[in-house]
Amino acid sequence: MTAQGQPTYDAPDGEAEPKPVEFLSRENVEKTAQRTYDEFPLPNGMRCRIQSLSELEYAKFETRFCDSKGQPRNDRLKDMRPLLVMMTVVDENGGLRFGPEDLDYLRAMSAPLSMCIYARARKLCGIGEEEEEIDDLKKS
User: Where are the domains of the chain?
Assistant: First the structure.
């Protein structure tokens, strides 16, 4: 805590003093709305660039796999990887590389390639436990 009672975080090595903590608020939420990106090599030797999803985009992704009662629809789970690839792969300017018309192509993509992109996109977008629960339901 600072002398004024403001919370602080520990200063990283090389910084002289701790900095005040900034808590999320309506006034600063725009800072959190910026997309994050990840660029990585693919198993086929090419490179891939992906972007994070907005809350609205994530909701559209998630609801596509559930029925009106919020239960997983097994008949739709086959599109989980291709859809996330479609929604996150971007060019150097942040423009989407694929659209809904490309889903058939993405379904035919090699599994190692698709899984590589999907795993990175999942991590970047914060998709975790909820999706693992759907995977578990699919297995049962």
Answer: 35-139
The label of the residue with tokens 């693992």 reads 132
Q: What is the pLDDT of residues 77-123, one digit of tens each?
A: 889 999 999 999 999 999 999 999 999 999 999 999 999 999 999 99
Where residue 70 falls (left for φ over 0; alpha for ψ -120 to 50; beta otherwise) is left
Q: For residue 104, what is the enclosing H or E element? A: helix 103-108
In CATH terms, the fold of domain 35-139 is rbstp2171 (3.30.2220)
Are residues 43 and 112 in contact, defined by beta-carbon separation less than 8 angstroms? Answer: yes
Question: How many Cα neighbours within 13 Å face the side chain of 105?
Answer: 8
The pTM of this model reads 0.72
Tokens of 28: 């600063």
